[in-house]
Design brief:
MetI-like; globular; MetI-like_sf; membrane; transmembrane helix
């Protein structure tokens, strides 16, 4: 057994200290958000709350969970995530499978056509006009339909499928299976790692999305949770411009949008659900990213 030299020990300690600093730098902001959300809203205004709640209170969470606008935002965001994610994974996998066939007529041209859309776009106004012509503006499906295809994810899945042994297709076709049966019974089970990876990214994208809700919807019942939070943050930033008389008249309402505790509680409510999903997909995550990215 080789004994460790003093240089190896020093290097190991340097690595441990560096990793500890990285952990503190990445973990503390989340911890501080949690601490502020658990601290009394009135006490938070005084400042000086860093590592633990000075005046423990769940009032901020009670106010957040009692706000009908936020509850409706949670429902809309949850619905778009649960509907949009599996549909996007299905559409991407259905396109990736035929494009993975090297003998597909026009396959390279179709792939280049999709790649072209990654680098060139018409801009926001033409995009808005297209959605309007499709009657998607101010509807729930404006959250779903535009996100059904992600070219980068398609390339990732296509490359993953291309690395599967070609003998699987040949043996299945010899047994009488058609392409759809091969896709469902062979390809989908074997591509679980990469599909779980793109599913996680798609779900995070749906959960954190707010711009499409801001631009493409007007009905309050269609606003997502993140759009509601952006509204709260904007109200907080502009509250200093409100007249003293208006501030006194709206003091009860202003507390909900200006208190750091309220904002941090809303951040926790918006963040925790999607964070909980990650551990269930972690075992697929690394494999899906590394294997699917080879030769992409």
């Amino acid at each position: 057994m080789r004994t460790r030299s003093s240089g190896d020990i020093v290097f190991a300690w340097v690595v441990y200290v560096f990793l500890l600093l990285v952990f503190i730098a990445t973990f503390y902001p989340f911890w501080n958000i949690l601490v502020l959300s658990l601290n009394s809203a009135e006490d938070t205004i005084l400042g000086g709350v860093y590592f633990w709640p000075r005046v423990f209170s769940l009032t901020s969470y009670a106010q957040i969970l009692g706000d009908q606008e936020i509850i409706n935002g949670v429902k809309v965001t949850l619905a778009r995530t649960l509907i949009g994610t599996p549909l996007a994974v299905l559409v991407i996998s259905l396109l990736s499978y035929p494009l993975s066939k090297r003998d597909l007529v026009g396959g390279k041209f179709i792939t280049l056509f999709f790649i072209f859309t990654m680098y060139f776009g018409g801009g926001l106004i033409p995009y808005y006009m297209i959605l309007k012509s499709l009657h998607l503006i101010d509807t729930f499906w404006v959250y779903i339909a535009p996100g059904l295809m992600n070219v980068f994810f398609m390339i990732l899945v296509r490359t993953f499928i291309q690395q599967l042994p070609g003998e699987l297709d040949e043996s299945a076709k010899m047994d009488g299976a058609n392409d759809l049966q091969i896709f469902v019974k062979i390809v989908l089970p074997l591509t679980t790692p990469v599909l779980a990876t793109i599913g996680l990214f798609t779900a995070i994208g749906h959960w954190n999305s707010w711009f499409d809700s801001y631009v493409f919807t007007y009905k309050p019942e269609l606003k997502t949770l993140q759009a509601v939070l952006v509204k709260i943050l904007n109200q907080y930033q502009t509250s200093s411009m409100v007249s003293d008389a208006q501030q006194m008249a709206d003091s009860a309402k202003r507390l909900a949008v200006s208190s750091d505790s309220i904002r941090m509680a809303a951040t926790i409510v918006a963040t925790v659900p999607i964070v909980i999903v990650y551990p269930f997909l972690q075992k697929y995550f690394v494999k899906g990213m590394t294997v699917g990215a080879v030769k992409a």
